[in-house]
Amino acid sequence: MAEKKGYWVARVDVSDPDGYKKYLELNQVAFAKFGARYLVRGGEFSAMEGESRARNVLIEFPSVQAAHDCYNSPEYKEAMSHRLPAGVIDLIIIEGYDGAQPGDA
C-alpha cells in the first residue's frame, strides 16, 4: 500500500506585504527540497461558514512525513523568520485520504 500524501492547510492574514514577499521567496527552497506542490495558492474564495482569513493555501507533499520534515527543516525555519512578523497564520498538517469516494460501487 502506498504511503498517504501529506498536506499543509494554511489560512493567512498578511499585515506586512514586503516581509511576506521575502517569506515567499525563501520558502521555495524548502518546498522544492521536500517535493511540495501547490494545489491552492490564494485565489478567490467564498467563506460559506465560520471565520476566514484573506489568503488560503493548500500544499501537497509526497507523504505526511515529508510535510513534517519540511516544516521542521532549517530551510523553512529561515523562511518562517520572515513570515512570523508579516502576519497571522493558521496552519495544519493533515494526512491525505485514499478510501472510497461518492459514486464508488
Topology:
Layout: E1 6-14, H1 17-33, E2 37-41, E3 55-61, H2 64-72, H3 74-83, E4 87-95
Helix pairs in contact: 1-3
Biggest sheet, open or closed, and with what strands and sense?
A: 4 strands, antiparallel
- Which radius of gyration do the C-alpha atoms yield? 15 Å
Compute the separation of the termini in Å. Answer: 21 Å
Label the CATH architecture: 2-Layer Sandwich
Mean pLDDT: 96
CATH class: Alpha Beta
SSE string: EHEEHHE
Q: Classify the secondary structure makeup into a structural class.
A: alpha+beta
CATH fold description: Alpha-Beta Plaits
Order of strands across the main sheet? 2-3-1-4
Please indicate the percent range of residues in DSSP E strands (runs of 2 or more).
25-35%
Number of strands: 4
Number of spatially distinct domains: 1
Shape: flat
Oligomer, anyone?
Answer: single chain
Per DSSP, the total helix count is 3
Low-confidence stretches: none
Helix percent band: 25-40%
Give a written overview of the molecule.
With 105 residues, this protein is α+β, with helices and mostly antiparallel strands. It has a single domain, classed as Alpha-Beta Plaits (2-Layer Sandwich). Helices cover 34% and strands 29% of the residues. It is built from three helices and four strands. The protein has helices spanning 17-33, 64-72, 74-83; strands spanning 6-14, 37-41, 55-61, 87-95. It has a four-stranded antiparallel β-sheet, covered by helices on one side. Helix 1 (17-33) runs antiparallel to helix 3. The radius of gyration is 15 Å and the shape is flat. The two termini are 21 Å apart. The mean pLDDT is 96.
